[in-house]
Amino acid sequence: MPHITRDEGSLGAQAPEAEPPFFRSEDREIYGWVSGVTHCSVEEVASATGLQQHEIEESICRLIRLGLIRIDSSPAKYFAVSPETARAELIAPLQRDIERRQHEVDRIRAVLYELTSVYQEGAARRVGPAPVEVIASPSQVAELALQLAASCHSEILLSEPDAAAAAEAMPFFQSDGSSVLGEDVEVRALFPHTARFRPDLVERIKVQGRRNTSYRTRSDSFMPLIVFDGQVAFFFDRTRSEGAVLVRDPTVVSFAVAAFERAWTRGITFSASYERQVVAELSENTKRTILRLMVQGVEDRLIARRLNMSLRSCQRHIEVIMRRLGAKTRMHAGFLVGESGLLDD
Questions:
Q1: For the chain, what is the total number of helices (H) and then of strands (E)?
Q2: Are 225 and 252 in contact (CB under 8 A)?
Q3: Which residue in 33, 27, 89 sits closest to 61, CA to CA?
Q4: Residue 91: helix, strand or coil by DSSP?
Q5: Would you call the peptide bond into 75 cis, given omega within 30 degrees of 0 as the criterion?
Q6: Cβ neighbours of residue 136 under 8 Å, at least 6 residues apart?
Q7: Which of 56, 126, 229, 330 has its CA 20 to 30 A from that of 84?
Q8: Which residue in 137, 150, 161 sits closest to 228, CA to CA?
Q9: Helix (H) or strand (E) holding 272
Q10: Taking a C-beta distance cutoff of 8 angstroms, is the pair 286, 317 a contact?
Q11: Is the pTM for the entire model greater than 0.70?
């Protein structure tokens, strides 16, 4: 076992690790035994617990990093420290760091808030299209989306292909049904079919109940974005970042609107109830999209990711499709689809 000095064993002597080491079942047993003696060696722990020496050494290292065991002298003799003492030494530096960072956040926020009007005045004098703004923080994106929604006059277009993020994709709608939107602002929101089975989203729609808000879903993937009044667009790329790109250029915003309209046209109206006919239509729509991707040679895992469903659900759909076609392999299925013209549209 590597030699560990008293200072290395004491969290009070240095800043704690960012993440405490994983606590295992043998750690609990060893810590309990060491707590019952004044001092002990690795050999004494091994004799009492029946554990292997290397297991004990690894466990003691983890317990030392958690501040639960310390070294008294050399040759190494270990003794236990109460969880209350360890907790104070482990958490206190983190708590101080949190308070320091919060103070820094408040200071920076105040400075940036002061400069908002300066930026807006400068932007008003700008000639030509505004530059693209990259917003890295999700909280900044949500806050700016709220500001744009509050000043919106006619329409908001929203598309969110991630079912898990659907409920939080509308920061301008509160959980109690209230909204920052004006009464005349129309909202159209597009989600994946799987979002229909998210209780949090269904409840949000029921509570919100806004007359000029409509929802649709579709099976295939589409662009994640929000467009305000056809003038400002948020583009999201969640494979790389939780932030967004804000664009005011008319040409790019027009492209975003056109992309949304194409996806919206092929969507199916989403209500908070589950009519059998609608569920059956969704299932067939999903199977047709899966069949199209199968014929293109896309593997199961990628199809599931693209349609925002679990791999198991995707494979169940594929089993039904293969059974209906009477196909034994994907190649055979592609041949049968080509012969029948099933996907000619």
A1: 12, 10
A2: no
A3: 27
A4: helix
A5: yes
A6: 241, 243
A7: 56
A8: 150
A9: none
A10: yes
A11: no
> What span, in angstroms and rounded, lies between the C-alpha atoms of 236 and 240?
9
| 8 pLDDT higher than 50 | no
101-134 tens-digit pLDDT: 988 988 888 888 788 778 777 766 766 545 678 8
Backbone angles phi, psi at 308, to 5 degrees: 60, 50
Q: Is 249 exposed, middle or buried (0-12, 13-18, 19+ CB in 10 A)?
A: middle
212's CB contacts (< 8 A; 6+ apart) are 183, 184, 185, 186, 187
Which candidate, 18, 38, 35, 15, places its Cα nearest to that of 27?
35
- 8 Å CB contact between 229 and 154: yes
Per 3-state DSSP, the chain is made up of helix, strand and coil in percentages (nearest 5) of 55, 15, 35
Q: How far is CA 254 from CA 120, 211, 227, 231, in A?
A: 23, 26, 10, 8
Q: Where are the beta strands (DSSP E) in the chain?
A: 69-71, 78-80, 133-135, 155-159, 186-192, 213-218, 225-228, 232-235, 244-247, 268-269
> Tokens standing for 2?
């590597």
- Spatial distance between the Cα atoms of 138 and 223, rounded to a whole number of angstroms: 18
Q: Could you report the per-residue pLDDT of 255-300, keeping only the tens digit for each?
A: 999 999 988 988 888 765 555 665 666 677 778 888 888 878 888 8
Q: Are strands 133-135 and 78-80 parallel, antiparallel or unpaired?
A: unpaired
